[in-house]
């Protein structure tokens, strides 16, 4: 957690919600349930928690209003306990930054992986947290709250949830408002949630979408048609996957094996990743819009944050010079024309949808497509703009690292993913029992200890001073 709401605010909210329940007014199935929020989602001053995006550049400033998704949570009677750690600025800073590390919150650790994050770990390594919403996943897994809401562009929710033995989902791009969330690209940005229980996640998706139809009482695979993507798996994961297939058949599902999806090679343009180029376009303008949420801040653009006089203070790096602000700088230098951007979007959508998911689902009359989470399936779903979820399968015998499967459906068909999840939760609950003992490890990061020394005295004091909080006036 980067920050927690002040005790007096939480007690005030809890008493108000308890009084409502006693009077017979229950707002939703999640009335009076605690939830954490990713640190890149704006919350106003009444909740007493900042929105820094993990960056020193936004310390000490409160957004002027909540995002729509926060208003949905509060309307449903949920209590926001605090902000979860994340990769700085949702990971869009520079190549080489460790996932789950911001200068404000420090390195996120997994409560499941024995020994914690290995120094110098690769992006998809055995101890890596993988995505920018790693703090949200670790927080739920460790018991800070039963639910978390976060954002995803490409695996940011689903990959960390997978590494924390959680159910996670990113909803269809464009179906839920992303206003007031730190942007990457409207092409693939969306919101979603994480939970230990599939039914809890279904209830949360209802709140996120503002509907009463997504939560499902159908906890059966009976009648579902499921396609499995063939992929290379290590022995233990392959055995767990085979067991799941066996259970699916036993409980009435129809299976199709070796379903084909788009190859990642189809996302290459001139030997470069097409998605990276598309994400880069418009990023600087999107951040100008986002920073309007902080009217009292002097930071009005990416150019203000990345400049020759304060870049090391505002955006300090944990690792070597290679872990720079290169992605931020390349966003400022982007010269892509709107015509070229539109052509790139069309090409990516065609590869992911027309030649991928849209081709396979009707071919076999599938409800969902399932594959290993450690594959690039979330990327294909992101390129298509489709919902994607993750379902826990088991734990590595080597270091306790959880592993699971990804589940993809067509646009606006989150209910099919959630049906698959709730059936898995009800029919095979034993996979959710972790090997003893789960551990929260203190990561030894000597280079991080010198971070404050790099900052000016004024910024150091700002880091150390708690924010002034105004109590919420609630009727």
From TrEMBL:
Pfam families from the UniProt entry: Amidase
Domain Amidase, residue spans: 10-372
Gene3D superfamilies: Amidase signature (AS) domain
Name of the featured protein: Amidase domain-containing protein
Domain of life, source organism: Eukaryota
Regions that span the bilayer: none
């Amino acid at each position: 957690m980067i920050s927690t709401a002040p005790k007096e605010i939480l007690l005030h909210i809890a008493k108000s919600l308890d009084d409502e329940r006693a009077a017979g007014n229950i707002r939703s199935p999640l009335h009076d349930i605690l939830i954490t929020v990713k640190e890149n989602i704006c919350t106003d001053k009444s909740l007493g928690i900042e929105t820094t995006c993990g960056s020193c550049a936004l310390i000490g400033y409160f957004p002027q209003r909540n995002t729509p998704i926060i208003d949905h949570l509060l309307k449903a009677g949920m209590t926001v306990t605090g902000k979860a750690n994340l990769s700085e600025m949702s990971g869009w800073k520079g190549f080489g930054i460790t996932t789950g590390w911001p200068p404000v919150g420090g390195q996120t650790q997994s409560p499941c992986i024995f020994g914690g994050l290995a120094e110098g770990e690769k992006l998809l390594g055995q101890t890596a947290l993988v995505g920018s919403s790693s703090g949200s996943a670790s927080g739920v897994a460790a018991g800070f709250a039963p639910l978390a809401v976060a954002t995803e562009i490409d695996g940011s929710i689903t990959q960390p949830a997978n590494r924390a033995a959680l159910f996670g989902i990113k909803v269809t791009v464009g179906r839920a408002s992303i206003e007031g969330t730190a942007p990457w690209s409207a092409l693939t940005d969306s919101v979603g949630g994480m939970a230990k229980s599939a039914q809890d996640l279904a209830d949360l998706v209802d709140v996120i979408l503002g509907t009463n139809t997504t939560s499902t009482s159908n906890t059966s695979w009976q009648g579902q048609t499921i396609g499995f993507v063939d992929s290379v798996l290590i022995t233990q994961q392959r055995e767990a996957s085979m067991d799941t297939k066996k259970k699916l058949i036993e409980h009435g599902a129809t299976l199709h094996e070796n379903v084909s999806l788009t190859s990642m090679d189809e996302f290459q343009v001139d030997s470069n990743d097409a998605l990276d180029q598309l994400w880069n376009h418009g990023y600087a303008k999107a951040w100008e819009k986002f920073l309007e949420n902080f009217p009292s801040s002097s930071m009005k653009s990416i150019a203000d944050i990345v400049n020759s006089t304060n870049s090391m203070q505002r955006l300090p790096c944990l690792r070597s010079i290679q872990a720079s602000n290169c992605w931020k700088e390349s966003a400022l230098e982007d010269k892509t024309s709107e015509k070229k951007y539109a052509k790139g979007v069309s090409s990516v959508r065609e590869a992911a949808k027309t030649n991928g998911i849209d081709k396979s689902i009707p071919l076999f009359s599938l409800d969902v497509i399932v594959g290993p989470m450690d594959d690039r399936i979330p990327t294909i779903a992101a390129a298509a703009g489709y919902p994607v979820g993750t379902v826990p399968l088991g734990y590595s015998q080597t270091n306790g690292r959880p592993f699971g499967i990804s589940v993809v459906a067509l646009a606006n068909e989150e209910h099919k993913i959630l049906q698959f999840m709730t059936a898995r939760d009800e029919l095979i609950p034993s996979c959710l029992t972790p090997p003893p003992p789960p551990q929260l490890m203190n990561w030894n990061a000597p280079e991080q200890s010198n971070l404050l020394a790099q900052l000016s005295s004024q910024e150091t004091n700002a880091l150390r001073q708690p924010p002034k909080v105004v109590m919420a006036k609630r009727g």
